[in-house]
Amino acid sequence: MYKVLIVEDDLVIAKSLKSCLSQWNYDAEFVVDFKDINKQFIEFNPHLVLLDISLPFFNGYHWCTEIRKISKVPIIFISSMSDNMNIVMAVNMGGDDFIAKPFDLNVIIAKVQALLRRTYSFSGQMNVIEHNGAVLNISDTTIEYKNSKIELTKNEFKIIQILMENAEKVISREDIMKRLWESDSFIDDNTLTVNVTRLRKKLSDIGLIDFIKTKKGIGYMVN
Which residues carry this modification: 4-aspartylphosphate (predicted)? Predict the structure, then answer.
Protein backbone atom coordinates (compact mmCIF):
# COMPACT_ATOMS: atom_id res chain seq x y z
CA MET A 1 0.00 0.00 0.00
CA TYR A 2 1.42 3.39 -1.01
CA LYS A 3 1.75 5.98 1.76
CA VAL A 4 0.93 9.66 1.22
CA LEU A 5 1.88 12.42 3.66
CA ILE A 6 -0.40 15.46 3.59
CA VAL A 7 1.25 18.73 4.66
CA GLU A 8 -1.76 21.05 4.90
CA ASP A 9 -2.62 23.32 7.84
CA ASP A 10 -6.31 23.66 6.93
CA LEU A 11 -7.69 20.72 8.91
CA VAL A 12 -10.87 20.50 6.80
CA ILE A 13 -8.83 20.14 3.61
CA ALA A 14 -6.33 17.77 5.25
CA LYS A 15 -9.11 15.47 6.50
CA SER A 16 -10.87 15.60 3.13
CA LEU A 17 -7.66 14.58 1.34
CA LYS A 18 -7.00 11.79 3.83
CA SER A 19 -10.54 10.44 3.46
CA CYS A 20 -10.41 10.52 -0.34
CA LEU A 21 -6.98 8.88 -0.53
CA SER A 22 -8.07 6.19 1.94
CA GLN A 23 -11.03 5.35 -0.29
CA TRP A 24 -8.51 4.67 -3.07
CA ASN A 25 -6.57 2.35 -0.73
CA TYR A 26 -3.72 4.73 0.03
CA ASP A 27 -2.32 4.93 3.55
CA ALA A 28 -2.65 8.68 4.13
CA GLU A 29 -1.62 10.76 7.13
CA PHE A 30 -1.56 14.51 7.67
CA VAL A 31 1.05 16.51 9.57
CA VAL A 32 0.14 17.71 13.05
CA ASP A 33 3.42 19.34 14.16
CA PHE A 34 4.33 22.08 11.70
CA LYS A 35 7.47 22.99 13.64
CA ASP A 36 9.12 19.67 12.75
CA ILE A 37 7.63 18.23 9.58
CA ASN A 38 10.82 16.27 8.86
CA LYS A 39 10.29 14.16 11.99
CA GLN A 40 6.88 12.92 10.84
CA PHE A 41 8.19 12.53 7.29
CA ILE A 42 10.99 10.23 8.47
CA GLU A 43 8.75 8.27 10.83
CA PHE A 44 5.94 7.79 8.29
CA ASN A 45 8.31 7.16 5.35
CA PRO A 46 5.81 8.15 2.63
CA HIS A 47 5.93 7.30 -1.05
CA LEU A 48 4.54 10.74 -1.97
CA VAL A 49 4.00 14.12 -0.31
CA LEU A 50 1.17 16.61 -0.88
CA LEU A 51 2.62 19.94 0.24
CA ASP A 52 0.96 23.33 0.73
CA ILE A 53 3.05 26.50 0.32
CA SER A 54 1.51 28.67 3.04
CA LEU A 55 2.16 26.91 6.37
CA PRO A 56 2.78 27.91 10.00
CA PHE A 57 6.39 28.62 11.07
CA PHE A 58 8.07 27.72 7.74
CA ASN A 59 6.59 27.67 4.25
CA GLY A 60 6.32 24.73 1.89
CA TYR A 61 9.42 25.78 -0.04
CA HIS A 62 11.49 25.40 3.13
CA TRP A 63 10.14 21.93 3.84
CA CYS A 64 10.54 20.85 0.23
CA THR A 65 14.23 21.79 0.48
CA GLU A 66 14.57 19.90 3.77
CA ILE A 67 12.91 16.77 2.37
CA ARG A 68 15.10 16.93 -0.73
CA LYS A 69 18.19 16.73 1.50
CA ILE A 70 17.23 13.19 2.52
CA SER A 71 14.84 11.83 -0.10
CA LYS A 72 13.82 11.82 -3.77
CA VAL A 73 10.21 11.06 -2.84
CA PRO A 74 7.78 12.74 -5.29
CA ILE A 75 6.26 16.00 -4.05
CA ILE A 76 3.07 17.60 -5.36
CA PHE A 77 2.50 21.21 -4.29
CA ILE A 78 -1.12 22.15 -3.58
CA SER A 79 -1.74 25.87 -3.11
CA SER A 80 -3.98 28.83 -3.87
CA MET A 81 -0.74 30.74 -4.59
CA SER A 82 -0.92 29.50 -8.17
CA ASP A 83 0.57 32.38 -10.13
CA ASN A 84 3.35 31.57 -12.57
CA MET A 85 6.08 32.74 -10.20
CA ASN A 86 5.02 30.33 -7.44
CA ILE A 87 4.58 27.43 -9.86
CA VAL A 88 8.09 27.99 -11.25
CA MET A 89 9.46 28.37 -7.71
CA ALA A 90 7.81 25.12 -6.61
CA VAL A 91 9.35 23.17 -9.48
CA ASN A 92 12.77 24.77 -9.00
CA MET A 93 12.73 23.92 -5.29
CA GLY A 94 12.24 20.22 -6.08
CA GLY A 95 8.51 19.80 -6.60
CA ASP A 96 7.28 17.31 -9.19
CA ASP A 97 3.85 18.78 -9.88
CA PHE A 98 1.55 21.65 -8.86
CA ILE A 99 -2.20 21.65 -8.23
CA ALA A 100 -4.03 24.93 -7.72
CA LYS A 101 -6.65 25.42 -4.99
CA PRO A 102 -9.57 25.07 -5.05
CA PHE A 103 -9.05 21.65 -6.54
CA ASP A 104 -11.18 18.70 -7.62
CA LEU A 105 -10.42 15.58 -5.55
CA ASN A 106 -10.61 13.52 -8.74
CA VAL A 107 -7.73 15.58 -10.14
CA ILE A 108 -5.72 14.95 -6.95
CA ILE A 109 -6.24 11.19 -7.27
CA ALA A 110 -5.36 11.20 -10.97
CA LYS A 111 -2.16 13.20 -10.35
CA VAL A 112 -1.16 10.99 -7.39
CA GLN A 113 -1.74 7.80 -9.37
CA ALA A 114 0.21 9.06 -12.39
CA LEU A 115 3.19 10.25 -10.34
CA LEU A 116 3.33 7.04 -8.31
CA ARG A 117 3.27 4.98 -11.52
CA ARG A 118 6.11 7.00 -13.02
CA THR A 119 8.21 6.95 -9.86
CA TYR A 120 8.04 3.47 -8.44
CA SER A 121 9.97 1.32 -10.81
CA PHE A 122 12.56 1.83 -8.12
CA SER A 123 14.55 0.12 -5.42
CA GLY A 124 13.66 2.43 -2.58
CA GLN A 125 13.17 6.17 -2.27
CA MET A 126 13.99 6.82 1.38
CA ASN A 127 17.62 7.67 2.00
CA VAL A 128 17.34 7.49 5.78
CA ILE A 129 16.15 5.12 8.50
CA GLU A 130 15.13 6.65 11.84
CA HIS A 131 14.69 5.01 15.23
CA ASN A 132 14.41 6.75 18.61
CA GLY A 133 16.17 9.86 17.35
CA ALA A 134 19.00 8.04 15.57
CA VAL A 135 19.07 8.72 11.80
CA LEU A 136 20.98 6.34 9.53
CA ASN A 137 21.91 7.98 6.23
CA ILE A 138 21.82 5.42 3.43
CA SER A 139 23.49 7.69 0.88
CA ASP A 140 26.71 8.39 2.80
CA THR A 141 26.81 5.53 5.38
CA THR A 142 26.74 7.81 8.41
CA ILE A 143 24.58 7.88 11.51
CA GLU A 144 23.39 11.01 13.30
CA TYR A 145 22.11 11.58 16.81
CA LYS A 146 21.43 14.92 18.52
CA ASN A 147 23.50 16.95 16.04
CA SER A 148 26.46 14.54 16.14
CA LYS A 149 27.42 12.45 13.11
CA ILE A 150 29.86 9.57 12.66
CA GLU A 151 31.05 7.65 9.62
CA LEU A 152 30.67 3.87 9.53
CA THR A 153 32.68 1.18 7.79
CA LYS A 154 30.91 -0.98 5.21
CA ASN A 155 30.31 -3.81 7.69
CA GLU A 156 29.30 -1.50 10.56
CA PHE A 157 26.82 0.27 8.30
CA LYS A 158 25.27 -2.96 7.04
CA ILE A 159 24.91 -4.35 10.58
CA ILE A 160 23.15 -1.27 11.95
CA GLN A 161 21.02 -1.03 8.79
CA ILE A 162 19.77 -4.59 9.28
CA LEU A 163 19.00 -3.93 12.94
CA MET A 164 17.27 -0.57 12.37
CA GLU A 165 15.18 -1.98 9.54
CA ASN A 166 13.96 -4.55 12.08
CA ALA A 167 13.81 -2.32 15.16
CA GLU A 168 12.50 -3.96 18.34
CA LYS A 169 13.10 -7.42 16.82
CA VAL A 170 15.93 -9.80 17.67
CA ILE A 171 18.03 -10.66 14.62
CA SER A 172 20.15 -13.79 14.90
CA ARG A 173 23.89 -13.67 14.34
CA GLU A 174 23.41 -16.21 11.56
CA ASP A 175 20.91 -14.00 9.74
CA ILE A 176 23.20 -10.98 10.01
CA MET A 177 26.17 -12.90 8.67
CA LYS A 178 24.06 -14.31 5.84
CA ARG A 179 22.94 -10.80 4.83
CA LEU A 180 26.51 -9.53 4.91
CA TRP A 181 27.81 -12.41 2.80
CA GLU A 182 25.06 -11.75 0.25
CA SER A 183 26.29 -8.16 -0.08
CA ASP A 184 29.91 -9.28 -0.59
CA SER A 185 30.93 -8.20 2.91
CA PHE A 186 32.61 -11.48 3.79
CA ILE A 187 32.30 -12.00 7.52
CA ASP A 188 32.55 -14.87 9.98
CA ASP A 189 31.36 -15.20 13.58
CA ASN A 190 34.48 -13.67 15.13
CA THR A 191 34.53 -10.78 12.65
CA LEU A 192 30.88 -10.06 13.45
CA THR A 193 31.70 -9.79 17.16
CA VAL A 194 34.59 -7.41 16.46
CA ASN A 195 32.43 -5.24 14.17
CA VAL A 196 29.57 -5.04 16.68
CA THR A 197 32.01 -4.07 19.46
CA ARG A 198 33.51 -1.28 17.34
CA LEU A 199 30.05 -0.16 16.24
CA ARG A 200 28.83 0.05 19.83
CA LYS A 201 31.85 2.19 20.74
CA LYS A 202 31.14 4.60 17.88
CA LEU A 203 27.46 4.82 18.79
CA SER A 204 28.33 5.44 22.44
CA ASP A 205 30.63 8.31 21.41
CA ILE A 206 27.62 10.25 20.03
CA GLY A 207 25.34 9.40 22.94
CA LEU A 208 23.70 6.21 21.67
CA ILE A 209 24.63 4.16 24.72
CA ASP A 210 23.27 0.59 24.76
CA PHE A 211 21.53 1.25 21.43
CA ILE A 212 22.40 -2.29 20.35
CA LYS A 213 21.27 -4.96 22.80
CA THR A 214 22.63 -8.51 22.92
CA LYS A 215 20.19 -11.34 23.36
CA LYS A 216 22.48 -14.04 24.71
CA GLY A 217 22.59 -17.12 22.53
CA ILE A 218 20.34 -15.54 19.92
CA GLY A 219 21.60 -12.30 18.38
CA TYR A 220 21.14 -8.51 18.51
CA MET A 221 18.44 -5.86 18.44
CA VAL A 222 18.03 -2.10 18.68
CA ASN A 223 15.42 -0.62 20.98
Answer: 52
